[in-house]
């Protein structure tokens, strides 16, 4: 049993020193002195220090497939509180930094495998030679905002510091097109779908072939991530690659190159638009991409090229984020009155949320109120085409299979592929989360895990991959 040498009279001082409050400290002491504390800590370590673990109750029984004899059994009755804690798996860093870190790592490997290849993930290394670019599609202007130009002051005449709260906010809120901003976010996924369709047309036209011939000779693959600018407008970063007709395992046609892909992307972005029908309160509106389209080749020995690991790390970073850069809430907003309980909500962000709520009834089916906390955006933050690379599900399954193999070997059980065992399981959801003291301890465990992993990877990079960018 673990005891903390903290006298009751010193609780407040100790809490202050630990950066917590007396209630949390008191609960921390309770948890640390429970008989099952060491097992609880082991459970939390196995979740990676998850901030909001899922609690399960249940049993598993492994039997001999022929005789029916019990080879191994497990019950949560022996666990602390009679529960097994498993990671929540939330991708958002604002909800669970630990699970988001794992998600970002998986995204990094998924994205990089589609750039450089990885035979362990069934992506041939020859894909490295396929034409590919890192493209950014932005939102149009909805009105002048405060910014930091590369040269000179902001249009308002001020040199804003990097952390200025004015960055991204309208210079004239009364004339800013808030309706256009949230509708663009809401329809951004539709614009992206139209862009991918038009991109194939542009590629075929520049290659001098028909669209049917393009389908027979080449395939366009992509992996993308959404990012919110400070002004609250979403934009997309995408790795776009040209393959042969069967995907990354087949070489692209002779005419495929990064210059053609660059021109096709710019042409498609400039051509795509989406016209919304007028409502009683709003005029007809046409949505389109912004004029700023950035396309950079990926790979060595190309002018202006970006490194594959740097691209994968960038995509992985934003795969775990949402609209936090605008100061919005990270949970759904049920009613307008809930905004009054968010005192730190920036004025610009509040108006974007209010606009979503106001427009909801005028655009039925678009669920603007449901996604008001996301400033109208309702799409997935990280997506890929089917043939781009492996899948997040496959990466998670590989990790689960590895852990299951370790546990079977520790229990002396044969591999399930031999068909000699049968495992029966029964699980019931029993809640989620931590008490205040458990949360503090879990965060400490998660921080230790991250520090150890970063230290090990930095050492590995220094020894085996000098100069390589990326965190995963």
UniProtKB/TrEMBL annotation:
InterPro entries: RepSA, RepSA_streptomyces. It holds the Pfam family RepSA. This is Replication initiation protein. The lineage of its organism: Bacteria, Bacillati, Actinomycetota, Actinomycetes, Kitasatosporales.
């Amino acid at each position: 049993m673990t005891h903390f040498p903290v006298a009751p009279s010193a609780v407040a001082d100790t809490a202050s020193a630990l950066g917590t409050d007396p209630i949390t400290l008191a609960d921390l002491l309770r948890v640390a002195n429970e008989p099952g504390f060491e097992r609880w800590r082991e459970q939390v370590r196995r979740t990676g220090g998850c901030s909001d673990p899922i609690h399960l109750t249940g049993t598993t029984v492994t039997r001999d497939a022929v005789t029916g004899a019990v080879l191994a059994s497990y019950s949560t009755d022996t666990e602390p509180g009679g529960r097994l804690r498993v990671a929540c798996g939330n991708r958002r860093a604002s909800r669970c930094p630990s699970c988001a870190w794992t998600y970002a790592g998986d995204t990094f490997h998924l994205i990089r495998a589609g750039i450089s290849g990885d035979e362990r993930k069934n992506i041939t290394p020859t894909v490295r030679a396929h034409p590919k670019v890192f493209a950014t599609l932005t939102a149009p202007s909805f009105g002048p905002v405060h910014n930091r130009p590369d040269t000179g002051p902001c249009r308002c005449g001020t040199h804003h510091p990097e952390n200025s709260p004015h960055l991204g906010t309208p210079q004239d809120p009364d004339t800013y097109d808030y309706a256009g901003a949230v509708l663009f976010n809401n329809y951004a996924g539709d614009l992206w779908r139209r862009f991918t369709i038009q991109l194939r047309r542009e590629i075929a036209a520049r290659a001098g072939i028909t669209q049917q011939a393009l389908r027979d000779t080449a395939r366009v693959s992509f992996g993308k991530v959404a990012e919110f600018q400070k002004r609250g407008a979403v934009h997309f970063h995408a790795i776009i690659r040209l393959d042969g007709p069967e995907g990354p395992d087949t070489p692209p046609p002779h005419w495929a190159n990064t210059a053609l892909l660059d021109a096709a992307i710019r042409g498609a972005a400039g051509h795509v638009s989406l016209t919304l029908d007028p409502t009683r309160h709003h005029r007809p509106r046409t949505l389109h991409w912004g004029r700023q389209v950035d396309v950079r080749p990926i790979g060595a020995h190309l002018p202006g090229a970006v490194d594959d690991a740097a691209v994968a790390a960038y995509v992985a970073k934003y795969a775990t984020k949402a609209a936090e850069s605008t100061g919005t809430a990270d949970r759904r907003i049920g009613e307008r009155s809930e905004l009054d309980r968010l005192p730190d909500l920036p004025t610009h962000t509040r108006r974007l949320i209010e606009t979503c709520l106001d427009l909801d009834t005028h655009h039925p089916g678009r669920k603007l109120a449901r996604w008001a906390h996301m400033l109208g955006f309702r799409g997935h933050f990280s997506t890929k085409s089917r043939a781009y690379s492996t899948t997040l599900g496959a990466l998670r399954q590989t990790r689960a299979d590895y852990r299951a193999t370790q546990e079977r070997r520790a229990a002396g059980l044969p591999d399930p592929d031999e068909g000699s065992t049968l495992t029966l399981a029964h699980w019931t959801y029993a809640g989620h989360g931590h008490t205040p003291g458990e949360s503090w301890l879990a965060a400490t465990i998660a921080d230790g895990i991250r520090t150890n992993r970063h230290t090990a990877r930095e050492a590995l990079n220094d020894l085996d991959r000098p100069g390589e960018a990326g965190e995963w």
